Each structure stands twice: as C-alpha cells, then as structure tokens.
Predict the 3D structure of the following.
Amino acid sequence: MHAEPQDHAHTPAHQHAPRSDGPQEGHQGHAHQNHGGHDHHGEPDWSALAVLLEREGELNSPAFTQAAQWLRELQNNAAVGRVLDVGSGPGVVAGVLAEAFPAAEVVAVDGSPALLERARTRSAGRLSTQQADLPAEFDRLGTAGLIWSSNAVHHLGDQQAALTALAGALRPGGLLAVSERGLPLRFLPRDIGLGRPGLQARLDAAHEDAFAAMRAQLPGAVDEVEDWPAMLAAAGLAPAGSRTFLAEWPAPLGLPGREHLHTQLSRRRDQLGELLDAADREALDALLDREAPTGILARPDAFYLTAITVHTARKAG
C-alpha cells in the first residue's frame, strides 16, 4: 500500500504564503498518485514513481507541516513514543512527523523496498523503516501512539477493514490521522487560451471515473460511503476533529513545480485520453509541448494550489 500522488487541500488560520519560486530540493513533504507502469491489479509501479512522489511531497510540504503541528496540539504536546506513517512512499511526510515529534521513533511503513530505501536516504538517520504488504500484514506493524496514513487506504479494497486494523495498532489514548484525497489540484486559470475553457474541470471528471474503475478492480473491493469520521467511529475510535490545510505556490511557479505539473499532465494524457474529446486532447498536447510558449513549462499563469483534509480519531485511554 502506498499513498497515491495527488491532485489534493484548509484555509488555515495562520498561512504564510510560500515563495513563488516553489520549494527547494530537500524540503520535507509527502503525497502520491498513479504514474508509470502498473501491476496486474492496475496499481502503479511505485518504484518508478519515487521522483514524482518526492517532488509532490515537497510541493505539499506547507500543508503537511501545518497538519503535523495540529497533531501535536491534539496530543497536548505530550510525548509520543512511536509514530507510524503507513503507506509512506519515499518518506517525505515521515520526515515532517519526525520534526514535529523529535522524541518519537518514527517508522515509515511501505510495501516497496525501493521507496523505503529512498526514505532511509532522505531521513539521514531520523527514521526507521518497515516493509509490510497490506492488508495481509497489518499484524506486523506493532503499536504506536500516533498513526498517519495519507492517500493509502483507498488502495485497499475494504477501506473500513483497513481503518479498523489501523485502530487496532493504536496504543490507549493514541491518535489515528487519515488524509484521503481532499480537493483537486488547481494550477491554471479557467480559460487558458487553448480549446474550450474549463479543461481542468473536465480532467477532474475523467479522473473520478478512472478512480472509481481502479477501486472496483481492487481485490475484495467494498463500496463504502466515504464519510471518514463515521468510518473512524465504526473502527471503534472517538473522532477528534477534521481540518483542511493549503499548499500554495503562486504564479509564476518555479521550474520544479512546472516540471511536476508537466509530469502530471503527461500522465493524465496517457491515462485519460480515451475519456476526453479531441479538442481537450489537443489542448493537453499543447500544454505538454516543451518548446511552445503556451506549454506548462513556459506559461506565466501557472500556479500550484491544493487542499489536504486530515481526519483524526482517538482510541480510548
């Protein structure tokens, strides 16, 4: 299980606007989405996604940093002995959690050895890692005072069973924090001068259809009303609140952000092309043109805005 690279999203009370040149190399963050090759269940080749996942995590780091500080507040700044990031990918959010909980053992949990190796490299010794193929190996996680999972539960067929298993790994009084999808990424104006206005909204609609098809193909897939607080309560936990956090890099977006958008648009073109009309495919091709002034790598109106919602619940002490 891995967190998917994301089109994600809060309007935080204390948001400092990041520099418009985008995040620099080495900034912490995390998040994932589908790219590259897929296995026989239609899942991505996560090892091939490492660079994309890291770059997305770095772009989303303002939101994840705020979320981690909120989790500290929910824990009343009390010491937390062990933190699990379940579906950690290359460990960007695990690094954020290690900074927020410096006295804790922070463990990045993932099924991909390559991504865990990248997490160890990034962490400079601040993290430990644990390989686990979920849902089969939930019982290998051990217990923790804080468990984080971002865009990972939706890769398991029975999402309620996954939450119940995570709840079972909490220590008394422990907190489970789940971030799933949020709001779609926004990065261009409604009218971009290519084709019909509203291209992003149509891409979002096609992506929702593809996401539903992916969920339907998962082993043991169960339809579920994705009311995350209610699902956490059904897992035997007491909901502790939900909040949404922004990651915003205003126009003109720096090159790392533009390269990330180019990769995401290329993936959308490959994955969703048959769901789009000819005019939208043509507009996507123009955005992907590395030499054209209308391409995403050159446009002065490109920005990055996403919202990440975190749902929390506590185990009885």
Summary: Residues 7 and 292 are 25 Å apart (CA to CA). The longest strand covers residues 238-249. The chain has a mean pLDDT of 87.
